[in-house]
Design goal:
With 339 residues, the chain is α+β, with helices and mostly antiparallel strands. It contains seven helices and 13 strands. The protein is globular. The N and C termini lie far apart (66 Å). The protein binds 6-O-phosphono-alpha-D-fructofuranose. Belongs to the FBPase class 1 family.
Length: 339
């Protein structure tokens, strides 16, 4: 029966990770095991995120559980799921989490050679109003497998990451991931009935839609370059007579949602104020956007070249369609803003 809707040749994240291992010289299978731990953690977080409201309503967790403990907030729970599954994989040496002040250095007895920087549930302030949220991760290989792991293993440029991605918990659960060097970004949608991430977005490349995404509520803090660029896409240039097509404004306020749209449709996302974190928001998203044919900048240069000075370092970020990011960089050169 060759009915088109009965696809039987679907690919899964699990099979893609295994095939990548087979194609990689001297692959030990460690990254395969690590990525499967990330995938399992995201399935579990998805399950908990989707039940959270219900659990509160039906009182299973209510505001206190049987030990009369305050029910864990979703981002705390998501952090514990990520830390436990990553540590349990036996393939990690250093864990950096948005939820933890200090890095975790995995005990020698269960230590591996990878460092995972992650935000277990980014955008969690949006949970109660049903906005898409997500887990963001970036992976480094330790600098020296024979040395004691240290914070030096993660205070490195984003160009040294080996893999990065996010899992968005929205109308469906979608894992978007890139293996550095593949120049490919693939998206996989979770089929909760078979528990597999099934490939739904093959080799994502940015679209060309004229969309801009920025929190205009911060306009009073924008420097001359950002003001100049935003005005140039909202209003016709002085003396312009012809037809002017302004950009469309789209801002969710949850990074995974704003980046997912930018990856699929194109456009530009800007967070000029130094709010977003380098290791587990800026770097992973920059790797995805570059692999999908876009550009990711601080406004003055390639953001992946930054070296964070501490694990929760922040940076301004402008990313999306190459021409748009280059226009912002040009505004910085012209106005020499923020010097
Ligand atoms: P603002 C969510 O709190 C977050 O960390 C990112 O997911 C999002 O892009 C940004 O902050 C939104 O910040 O200041 O516009 O609410």
């Amino acid at each position: 029966d060759n009915r088109e809707d009965l696809r039987t040749d679907f690919k899964t994240l699990t099979s893609d990770i295994l095939h990548r291992q087979q194609r990689t010289e001297r692959a030990t299978g460690d990254l395969t095991i690590l990525l499967n731990a990330v995938s399992s953690a995201c399935k579990w977080i998805s399950n908990v995120v989707r039940k959270a409201e219900l659990l509160k309503v039906i009182g299973v967790t209510g505001s206190t559980n049987v030990q009369a403990e305050e029910v864990k907030k979703l981002d705390v729970l998501s952090n514990q799921i990520m830390c436990n599954l990553l540590r349990d994989s036996g393939k990690t040496a250093v864990l950096v989490s948005e939820e933890l002040e200090e890095a975790i250095f995995v005990d020698a007895s269960e230590r591996g050679k990878y460092c995972v920087c992650f935000d277990p549930l980014d955008g969690s302030s949006n949970i109660d109003c049903g906005v898409s949220i997500g887990t963001i991760f970036g992976i480094y290989l330790v600098k020296d497998t024979k040395a004691e792991p240290s914070v030096k293993d993660v205070l490195r440029p984003g160009t040294e990451m080996v893999a990065a991605g996010y899992c968005m918990y929205g109308s469906s659960t979608v894992m978007v991931i890139t293996m550095v060097g593949s120049n490919e970004v693939n998206g996989y949608t979770l089929d909760p009935h078979i528990g597999e991430f099934v490939m739904t977005h093959r080799n994502i490349k940015l679209g060309k839609k004229k969309i801009y995404s920025i929190n205009e509520g911060n306009a009073h803090t924008f420097d001359e370059a950002i003001k100049g660029y935003i005005n140039s896409i909202k209003f016709p240039p002085p003396g312009h007579q012809g037809k002017f097509t302004p950009y469309t404004a789209r801002y969710v306020g949850s990074m995974v949602a704003d980046i997912h749209r930018t990856l699929l449709y194109g456009g530009i996302f800007l967070y000029p104020g130094g709010k977003l974190r380098v290791l587990y928001e800026c770097f992973p998203m920059a790797l995805l956007i570059e692999a999908a044919g876009g550009k990711a900048s601080t406004g003055r240069g390639r953001i992946l070249d930054l070296v964070p000075d501490q694990i929760h370092a922040r940076s301004p970020i402008v990313l999306g369609t190459k021409e748009e990011v280059e226009a912002v960089e040009e505004w910085y050169r012209k106005t020499n803003a923020g010097k």
